[in-house]
């Protein structure tokens, strides 16, 4: 699916910016902008599909199905890119940076003890997890989001026949 591939490329760029953005705030802001814009990209792609393939008329269920499969294709592509990044490029930099940020945040004055315990638990989980486990977690999270967002976006994309 062409539109799913395009959304997957956008997500892949977003993930790479997130990994690199941990050291550069400008790239992290770009990543956040892509994250917020992702549903708008999906709606734009669905409207293009409606206009080009459906004669500018699409029912809610058709729009939902299109958006759902577009999100699934994007999830699979971006997860593959993320796995390749972690497996061959990252060499533990992402997890080390996350550990550094969590450790630094635990030393701020006025932090609750409950937050400290949660951050320590998160650090232990990160240290004990493998790249594959992390990528599977992200894939599951993306598929969960891919099953919710089409319900909302399809409302704005649908257009009934006026005749």
Describe what you observe in this structure.
By secondary structure, the protein is mostly helical. The protein has one domain (2-157). 84% of the residues lie in helices and 0% in strands. The chain has six helices and no strands. It has helices at 2-21, 25-53, 60-90, 93-106, 113-128, 131-157. Helix 1 (2-21) crosses helix 3, helix 2 crosses helix 6 (131-157) and helix 4 runs antiparallel to helix 5. The protein starts with a helix and ends in a 6-residue tail after the last helix. The mean pLDDT is 86.
Question: Per DSSP, what share of the residues sits in E-state strands of 2 or more residues?
Answer: under 5%
Q: What is the CA-atom radius of gyration, in angstroms?
A: 19 Å
Helix percentage range: over 70%
Shape: elongated
Overall mean pLDDT? 86
Number of helices: 6
H and E string: HHHHHH
Distance between the termini: 30 Å
Poorly predicted spans? none
What is the total tally of β strands?
0
Number of domains: 1
Main sheet record = none
Structural class: mainly alpha
Outline:
Helices cover 84% and strands 0% of the residues.
List the helices and strands and how they pair.
Elements: H1 2-21, H2 25-53, H3 60-90, H4 93-106, H5 113-128, H6 131-157
Helix pairs in contact: 1-2, 1-3, 2-3, 2-6, 3-6, 4-5
